[in-house]
Write a structure and sequence with these properties.
about 140 residues, mainly alpha, 6 helices
Length: about 140
Amino acid sequence: MQLNHLKERKQRILKIWYTILNGVRLEFPAATPPEIKEMVTQNLWSSRPEDRYTMNDVVQRLEQLTGIKQPTKKKEHHKSRSELNDENNGGHRDSAARRKSRREEDKGQSAAKKKGNSISKYRSVSHSTSTVNSTVQNGSPEREL
């Protein structure tokens, strides 16, 4: 049943497409001003794309014909995807940025190991974690020897 519906829909779309390609257009209401008809037929329905108006052109032409100016809108700041991610993650970077940062850190450590340095970021993280845990349990920070 659904396949039949899709087939009918495709046929309707193709019929409209062929009608437009053959130059058939809707008729204008009787009260349409001639200037509007001219703008639409010559500058919007043109078969040559370079002759067609942009939306800015349409707005300007309508302002000229009617004397009514388009109200100016305040420019709103639209947040970027990273700003939205920061808000949703409580200020933390998104997971893709964290993965990239980790890869860069790992590359830096690999380069340091090749030079003979064996400093590990994991050792410092685990040490600071155990110090925090010790402070919470004992009430005083762990002393290093």
